[in-house]
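ENTRY TYPE: protein
WANTED: fold as tokens:
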Amino acid sequence: MTLKPPLGFTVNWPVMVYRPTLCSRQTKEEWFKERDLKLKNLNDGFVNARAYMGGVIGRNPNGSGGVLLNMNHAWKAAFLLLISMSAGAQTVDGTSVATPELLVARGERGDPITVGIRFALEPDWYLYWKNTGDSGLPVEVRWELPEGWTASPLRFPVPQKFVHDNLVSYGYKKEVIFLSTITPGRVPLTTLKAELDWLVCKESCIRGSARVALPVSRWDKNMQEALVRSLALLPRPSKDLQVVVGNPRVQKSGVTWEAILELTGPDAPRVTDFYPEPSDRFFVDYSSIEIENGILRFRFELQKTDSRTLNVSGLFIANSKGYEHIFPIHLSSL
């Protein structure tokens, strides 16, 4: 069963609105009992879920060990995750909304192998970037490799930005290929295998999983061409974009900080957005990110306070391409 909450809904802990049209197989009492159990489990898992929540949840910076929520987004994001975690189906109206397959670029024997995980998505459904934004889960892979073989972390293409009622997500529609480099060992490989987990969303979200396999005998030229095209969609190095981040300033209001930075250089006028990468040191209010007249602004809250310098990494977006960049923010004693 997949619930479809309206955009812009609010949730006041622990009450949610009972809608019998969405829960026709349950009595009202059964529905509330199930809801309360799910919310308790979700609340208990908040701290461990910080990485998946895309920076929505963090440790209280006052050292009390409590949970600090960005209340503008946390309950909406948490509820979307709650709905997705309770949804077991991977199909809608009999159609699979996300279909994965493996691609392999054949190389010389013993050389590292470029591998792709391609997802074909039904219209308007999307998967998530490694920083999902205000809610979501990135694609995860567990390779089944012979002894001595190793696989690199997934490389994610430059994502799109989706905004729904002030909730920001980063992800992919239609088709996406995630890349990995596999280094062979001495034991022969006959079939490449992997287990995948993902979250695919539209108005609602559905958890998906699959075990995919590709025999060596089926590696072909068409796969290599698709992988070459996907390489062009990866983020580019910072040297390819002539932008300098300078004159960083910070302002503090309560537990919220605001960063203000100047973008200069020949390519600065081309930069229209900034997509932060995940961090366990701070979380960003993604809806606050803006670039105007060469000034980058965004708000954030600290998760760890053991350093007065934050190294912020992410992608500058220019003409639909992403460029990796990292810059420091020095926190004052405000």
